[in-house]
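name: query_chain
kind: protein
chains: 1
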Amino acid sequence: MSADRLAGSGTAGGDTEPARRRRAQRGRTGRRPGTDAGALGVAEPGQAGEATAGPESNVILLGQEPGPGPPAATPERAAAAPQGQEPAEAAAPAPDRVPRSAPAEACLFARYTRDYVTGHDGHQITILQAGCTTADGDLGVGVLREAGADIAVSLIDDDQPVTRAALGADESLAGCVRGDLRTVPLPPRSHDIVLCALLLQRINHAELVLDRLVATIRPGGLLLLRFSDRDSSGGFLDRVMPSAARSAVWRKRRPGRPGPYPAVYERLSSVRGVQAYALMRELVIAERQALGGLAGALAEPRGFLGAQKLVARLSRGRLTAAHEELLYVLRKPEDRFARIL
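structure:
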């Protein structure tokens, strides 16, 4: 081999300029010059090209075969697809439908009723609905009966003209006993759960009536109480508004049902009244929930909430617009000293 050829190959003496350029290019690109970039799966800078997929993932989705790319269309999928259309890769899930909100009374009271029935499995549960014409929902009794629970329900209400009209309009209340709630027969300790719904604010002698309802509850039973608060601006408006305005509010909240009922609002129909009553009768307040006013959950005629806010502001804190109605769950202790413990 001649000395000139050895010098040209770069194996003798100093490196030639072309050899240095080739080594520098290999150091920058990691491949020999002239190698096709597409063969290595690397696109040349400034050129459009598809980059090859990286290493295959070891995560396999359920229902897919391992390997890159979407699954191929099988003959069965192609046959199931309509003509002229490509088989869909995956059916889009149907959007979730928002269920209609159940009445707040039904949600809270039905939960405690279900828990009580579940805790007394194998025994007949007796329920008394006092003021049944203004009760919303059935405490979930229908669902519990379908599940095998043995539940007996009794209905009582006062004997006012609007009550008689409501009973005549609803066939499901045909078994209701009407009369003076101070004297209607109520055997003591004969019911597990007593529901008193929107009754206190529309009757006289409310404390005496509630005493009789509490006496009919067995030890460990529940008193489910719903009433309009006389110390709320909504309760104040219900007492002072003309009959036409009261009827408009009633039709908005209970369309097609007879009403409104008389607005009596004795002292018991208030937060302080119920709390003092529970303390004196040794009842345990398990939970309380507010409705109406700023708390929402009640249908409000146009401008009625604004009127409540205005009345509350003018009363200088004596009345509140934070709520209009209150829901109480009270428990009668098994032991008369249980409340102290």
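note: Residues 80 and 87 are 8 Å apart (CA to CA).
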